[in-house]
Design brief:
The chain contains 4 helices and 4 strands; from the N terminus they run ββββαααα. The chain is an alpha+beta fold and 175 residues long. Among the domains are: 3-61, no CATH class; 123-175. It starts with a strand and ends in an 8-residue tail after the last helix. This is Ead/Ea22-like family protein.
């Protein structure tokens, strides 16, 4: 992951140098790579704009990490689906190709086997995103409630915030 920072910069005779904010002519957003080398990403007229851009870059990096985690989960699901297909094939599907029906009880047996195989797949990235969306929904409800409540009732909003925080916590196995 790239580390970002903002610095005040001054240009003297075509050479740029980092300076304090008070002496800065402009502000530069830098990215530091894995080797610790800094590279200019963009220049801004003020620190606030540079820091806003830095936040966008950080959020982009966080989203990329989520995408990578989801892609890994999809690959795991793909591998598990191959196991499910093989289980179905071994439970009598190969005979249906020739027009021979499943033996009695084979469909139910295969269905339960498929559910067991798919239940073994862990999807922590998907689960975290789902919890985040649920928490945001609760927070939107709290904001809606508080903005329309005639009696300045913040109890519901406070409870909703607590519940949203709980939703963001990882679920324990077996829940």
């Amino acid at each position: 992951m790239t580390e970002y920072y903002v610095s005040g910069v001054i240009e003297i005779e075509g050479t740029c140098g980092r300076v304090t904010d008070e002496d800065a002519e402009f502000f530069t957003l830098y990215g530091k790579d894995d080797q610790g080398l800094s590279q200019c990403i963009a220049d801004f007229t003020d620190r606030l704009s540079a820091e806003a851009a830095m936040q966008v870059y950080q959020e982009r990096d966080a989203l990329q990490q989520q995408v990578n985690a989801l892609a890994a989960e999809v690959e795991c699901m793909r591998e598990q689906s191959e196991v499910v297909y093989a289980a179905g094939y071994n439970h009598g599907h190969l005979h249906t190709v020739d027009g021979i029906a499943y033996a009695p009880g084979v469909k139910d047996d295969f269905y339960h086997s498929a559910l067991q195989v798919m239940a073994e797949v862990e999807t922590p990235a998907t689960d975290a995103i789902k919890r985040q969306w649920m928490a945001e929904g609760v927070e939107q409800f709290a904001a809606f409630w508080e903005s329309r409540c005639r009696h300045n009732d913040t109890f519901v909003g406070g409870e909703a915030s607590n519940y949203a925080a709980q939703l963001r916590q990882p679920e324990e196995k077996g829940q």
